[in-house]
Amino acid sequence: MTNERASGMIVSGRPAAMLGTALVGILLATGTALASGSLPAEPISAGPFANFAACVAYLEATHQQLSAMAMPTPVANPAGGTRQVLVYTKGVLQDGGEQATYEAEVGYEFRHTDPERHSIITNYTWERYSMACHGAAFDGMLDRGYALPGIAPAP
């Protein structure tokens, strides 16, 4: 997938970005993650749509919202280290008929230096959106998860 800009979206009545940030906060508070993992997938509710064009317009709007979240470079985190939101997507894809899909991964990356290990620790959580229009019918799922902390030598 290509890196694109992205923005916030409400899924099941909860801000998606807040959930991703909360998961990272839990991982940071415990010091280490026991393993990579994911939460149960949940459906994304949208529609009903009057026609295929209206459904595709929703996919395009979602793409614009998620794209606005992306941060081109890491920024300083008030608690120390850096944070960055990464968005990977190919945008809305359509076939010749009334079928359209949108997939995106929004990643929340937090880095800090561990002076005892002389290492840079990277924590990463993600939200994966998978949505489709089949004519006016919409289908969507959201998966959330996290990766094991990455450890790299500090410069």
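(ticket continues) Second input and output from the same batch:
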Amino acid sequence: MKDRYERKELVFSAILGLMLLCLLEALSFLTLAFSVTPLKLNMGLPSGAASGGQLAHPYKSYMYWPAEGYWGKGMPPYVLAGNSYDYALFDQGISFNEFGHGVLPIDRDISRRKKGQGEYRILFLGGSTTFQPWPFLTAELLSRTLGRDIHAISAATGGYTSQENVADLVTSGSAYDADMIVAYLPVNDIWHAARWPKFKRDYTHFRTAVSREFKAPNFKQPDSREIFAWPFTVRLVQTLLFNKRMEAFLSAASINEIVFVKPTPDELGIWIDKNSYEGTVDAVIDNILTMKAYAEARGITFILVTQKIFKTGAEADSFISKYVLDSIDRIKASPRIMGIPIVEMNVLFPEPLTEATINQVKQEFPGRRMDFSQPEAYDSMHFSPASLYIFASTLAADLKKRIH
């Protein structure tokens, strides 16, 4: 009797264990089918503005990802040489619209929205120094001082030259019905187009469409073929372990976005190519002329703002900055663009800052956090957060005389 009872208990336990195993297998199967899959290499690659990425573009090489944003709350500070630069200047940040252009969140539809009564729109062109958010501070100050409804659209993108600015302007600029166009030039043309050898007027001697370069770390990439197909429970455990190893592999990998012809001037040992420099200066003047003609044909005010250059201890900065300043002198002297209003930031931007300038900016932007103890720029061209307010104040003082 006892043996029979023990046999029944053993059979019951075996059936219960088998049922639990089947349930576990079913749950593992469903998890594998709908939730957990082996991490593939392309799945692990970062994309979008959150990773600093660019979206490939047929005319401009690349652009910022629409619907992403920048310069808002939660943006981590930029730390360099013992300074922590806080660029989170706007509560809701700046949004990128369908053209990859920066606008305030209230202006996400500005390219499709009819201009309101008394509304004034300024389209800003440039590279990373214009991508910094001084255009929006400038529009804010102009709105307040003039009592006008002034909106900024920043068609500026890191690395853009006057060539991409022209492409941007003629392909999508008309969408905004702008009243004024402000171009901040020509530092990227000199740092890029003038350095690459074998100059081409369309800038394809240095520019390519955006692509990604992946360099694996010095340890083996995990192989998903080592994962068992069955049992599903074992497969689930192996998949989870595989994904953990793949994440470590991807985090150690080098993933670069390439928009330049290789080898680069640095790889070739070239600091500047004299023939390309001559061609680039002429191209910049021609591109400015195109911007002017575009604006005049539409009754739009066009303003050229020339680059502010800061002295640094870097030898390459000192070397190339001389060419940037020389190119500005040539642009100003060119009879081809006579009559264009030019705001010379290298002359107007105060260096070093004075107490009078600091007090004026604090009055113009009341309640804003400004750390004037930091350097005015963190390299030869990019402004510290406090300097962005100085830039906006300096530019607004000129632009307000031209807004009617």
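Agent notes: The longest helix spans residues 2-34. The mean pLDDT is 90. Closing as not reproducible unless the customer responds.
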